[in-house]
Design brief:
Rossmann fold, alpha/beta, 7 helices
């Protein structure tokens, strides 16, 4: 892991850009984090692989870092500034065309998001290895954000102790089946009027999770309308399981 830049922000958070081979990432830590006082780590991914610089993700990351966590995000393969394959570009073109025409999009999402998860999960595990080698970060580890990836990591990565998932992204069939194997504590956020995610599908997914402790927070509003207080509730959720 090679750190490229460092900024001290006005909320008491240190923001560092890093590279790990071909993987670009950002790490936010509270100023208090040190080798003698390491802080828990949260992996934060935006729905369906949008870039780590997306403003809503950055705002969540900074709030959680100010709350006392190390927070990391990466641009997975084909996301952010990383090159996209011809298949990725074609899937995005097909998706935009279908949405404009009001046509079904599930199969297009399946062909697009499924491979994204398969490519992203190993890179997130590699990143986790590197982050936990830093003296100022320690376990346990939480995950926040993109549901499809979160399911895969919660099933395959034993170091993840709790997960906060956003119901607004498409979840491929493979991850809907894997949801039954998820056993870590969950906080599942649902926008009741999400225009791109059928409500019943999200409720069925929540029901499928195998976790003995799982909480559903549902709020009125569309895809990007998650209330600000859910960010604070999310930090309290992680506080119960990571601190």
């Amino acid at each position: 892991m090679r750190f490229i830049s460092e900024r001290r922000l006005d909320d008491g958070v240190i923001e560092r850009e890093f590279s790990l081979g071909e993987i670009p990432g950002t790490l936010w830590t509270p100023e208090s984090a040190s080798a003698s006082a390491p802080v828990p780590l949260i992996l934060m991914a935006h729905n369906n692989g949008l870039p780590k610089a997306e403003p809503r993700l950055v705002a969540r990351a900074r709030l959680s870092a100010a709350y006392g966590y190390a927070v990391a995000s990466i641009d997975a393969a084909g996301c952010g500034d990383r090159p996209r394959s011809a298949a990725d570009e074609q899937a995005r073109t097909d998706l935009r065309r279908a949405m404009r025409a009001g046509e079904p999009t599930d199969e297009i999402f399946e062909s697009f998001v499924g491979p994204l998860v398969e490519k992203a999960a190993p890179e997130w595990r590699t990143t986790l290895d590197a982050l936990l080698s830093l003296p100022e970060t320690g376990g346990p580890v939480g995950y926040s954000g993109w549901t499809a990836l979160g399911i895969r990591l919660a099933v395959t990565e034993p170091r993840i102790a709790a997960a906060g998932l956003f119901a607004g992204g498409f979840v491929p069939r493979a991850q809907r089946e894997e949801a039954r194997q998820v056993t870590v504590p969950l906080l599942f956020l649902l926008q009741w009027d999400d225009e791109g995610n059928p409500r019943q599908r999200a409720l069925d997914l929540f029901d499928a999770f195998g976790s003995k402790e799982k909480t559903l927070h549902a709020n009125l509003g569309g895809h990007t309308g998650t209330p600000w207080f859910e960010r604070e509730d999310g930090d309290r959720f992680f506080g119960r399981h990571l601190k």
